[in-house]
Specification:
alpha+beta; Beta-Lactamase; 2 domains; five-stranded antiparallel sheet; 13 helices; 5 strands; 66% helix; PAS-like_dom_sf
C-alpha cells in the first residue's frame, strides 16, 4: 500500500468532484495557443462551466494550483516534438472542486487534442505523491519549470522507470486495463498480443546474452587443450590438432557470434511505442463510441469532430501496427541468424567427441582432459536449452504479430 502523502494539499479547501465517474470519458480540442475550440458534453459537466465560459477560453482555466509546473513543461516539450503525451493531471472545476484525469494529449496540424479518463491504479497514487513532493520543491526552492521537469524525470527514474516514455506507457496500459475491469468489459486481446511480443523479445534478449557468454567461455578451451597436449603427447599429437582446429573454428566464427549478439537486440523501443500508441488509439476509440451517443451541441459541428477523432484514431492504429511489424521483421531475420549459432554448437560437439575418442585411448588418469570434455558437454546442453527457449519465444512473437496483422487486414 502506498504511504500517505507527507505534505497536505496546497489547496485544502478543494473537494473531489462528484460529476466524474469511471465510465466517463471526455475530450477537448484547442488551437495552437491552447484556446478551447471544441469539447464534448462530459467535459462541460465535469468542469461545471457553462459552454459560453469554455469555448474560446484558454485551456488553463481548469488548471489546479496543486499541479507542478514541471509536468506542463514536460508535456509541452513532448507535444512540441510532434509526439503524444500521457500523464496524470489534477484539474479544478468552476465550483471549486477538483478532479484527477489521465490525459492523453496529441498534436494536430493546427492545435491539440486531449482525451481524459478517470484514473484509479497504484501508479496514479505513486504519481500523486511525486507531484506533491515536487510542488513543494517548486515553492520552497523556487524551481523554474525546466528544473522542475528535470526533477520530475529524476523522480520517475528513482521510482524504477528508465524514462518518461516507459512510465507513461505503463500508466496508460494499467489505467485502460483498470477501466475495462471496472466496466466489466473483456480484456483487450490486442494489448495482450503486444505484451506477449514484449515478453518474447525480453526472453530472447536475456537468453542471447547467455549464449554469447557460453561461447566466450569456450574460447579458453583450446589453450587448456594445448597444455594437456604438451604434457601427454608433445606438440604434434592428436589433441594438439583438435585444439588447433577448435581455435581456428572459434576465430572464424567470431563474427557470427558478434552478429548474433547485435541482432538479438530486437527493438524494445518499438514495442514501448506500439504499446503506447495502441493505448492512445484505445482511449480515442472509446471516446468515439461515447461521443456518438451524445446530443448535438449548439455551435459545434459534431460530424466534423467525429471525423477528426476517427481519422486520428486510425492514424495511431496504423502507427502501432507499423511498430509491431518492425519488431516482427527483426525477429524473423534473427531466427535465421540462430542457424549460425547451431553451426557453432555443432563445432563444440565435434570437438567434444574427438576429445572423448582420444581420452579413451589414454590409459592413465587425465583430469584436465576429462574436465574439458565435461565443459564442452555442459556448453552443448546449455546451448540446446537456450536455443529451444529462444525458438519458442520467436514462435510466440510471430504468432502474436500475425494475429494483429490479420485483424488489421479484416478491419481494412
Amino acid at each position: 500500500m502506498t504511504a500517505a502523502p507527507t505534505h497536505a494539499s496546497l489547496d485544502p479547501s478543494g473537494f473531489e468532484s462528484r460529476h466524474f465517474g469511471i465510465d466517463d470519458i471526455f475530450y477537448s480540442r484547442t488551437d495552437g495557443r491552447g484556446i478551447i475550440l471544441a469539447a464534448n458534453a462530459v467535459f462541460q459537466r465535469v468542469s461545471v462551466y457553462d459552454w459560453s465560459d469554455l469555448i474560446g477560453a484558454p485551456h488553463n482555466v481548469i488548471r489546479h494550483p496543486d499541479m507542478p509546473r514541471g509536468v506542463f513543461h514536460l508535456m509541452w516539450s513532448i507535444l512540441g516534438d510532434g509526439k503524444p503525451f500521457c500523464g496524470y493531471i489534477k484539474n479544478k472545476a468552476e465550483d471549486g472542486s477538483h478532479y484527477w484525469v489521465l490525459a492523453v494529449a496529441c498534436p494536430l496540424e493546427d492545435g491539440f487534442l486531449s482525451v481524459r479518463i478517470k484514473p484509479g491504479t497504484e501508479m496514479f497514487r505513486q504519481a500523486q505523491q511525486i507531484y506533491t513532493d515536487l510542488r513543494h520543491r517548486e515553492r520552497n526552492e523556487n524551481l523554474p519549470p525546466e528544473a522542475s521537469s528535470d526533477a520530475l524525470l529524476q523522480a520517475f527514474e528513482s521510482a524504477g522507470y528508465s524514462d518518461y516514455a516507459s512510465f507513461m506507457t505503463k500508466a496508460l496500459t494499467e489505467e485502460t486495463k483498470h477501466r475495462d475491469i471496472a466496466l466489466q468489459r473483456p480484456a483487450d486481446w490486442r494489448l495482450r498480443s503486444i505484451l506477449s511480443i514484449k515478453e518474447g523479445v525480453k526472453e530472447i534478449e536475456d537468453h542471447a546474452g547467455d549464449v554469447v557468454r557460453i561461447f566466450k567461455q569456450t574460447n579458453q578451451i583450446p589453450y587448456n587443450m594445448r597444455l594437456q597436449a604438451g604434457r601427454l603427447e608433445g606438440t604434434d599429437g592428436p589433441i594438439s590438432v583438435i585444439s588447433n582446429n577448435h581455435r581456428q573454428m572459434t576465430q572464424s566464427l567470431a563474427d557470427a557470434v558478434a552478429t548474433f549478439s547485435e541482432k538479438s537486440l530486437l527493438g524494445n523501443d518499438y514495442l514501448i511505442q506500439a504499446e503506447f500508441l495502441h493505448g492512445v488509439s484505445r482511449v480515442q476509440h472509446d471516446l468515439l463510441q461515447s461521443f456518438g451517443l451524445e446530443p448535438v451541441i449548439d455551435g459545434q459541428d459534431k460530424a466534423q469532430e467525429k471525423a477528426l477523432l476517427s481519422r486520428q484514431q486510425m492514424e495511431f492504429v496504423s502507427m502501432a501496427h507499423k511498430a509491431v511489424v518492425e519488431v516482427s521483421d527483426r525477429v524473423s531475420a534473427f531466427s535465421k541468424i540462430c542457424n549460425d549459432v547451431r553451426r557453432l554448437k555443432a563445432g563444440l560437439e565435434m570437438t567434444r567427441v574427438m576429445c572423448k575418442i582420444e581420452r579413451s585411448r589414454i590409459a592413465e588418469r587425465v583430469d584436465g582432459l576429462d574436465e574439458i570434455v565435461q565443459q564442452l558437454g555442459k556448453a552443448q546442453t546449455d546451448l540446446d536449452h537456450l536455443l529451444s527457449k529462444m525458438d519458442g519465444a520467436v514462435q510466440q512473437i510471430l504468432e502474436a504479430a500475425e494475429r494483429l496483422t490479420q485483424s488489421r487486414q479484416r478491419a481494412a
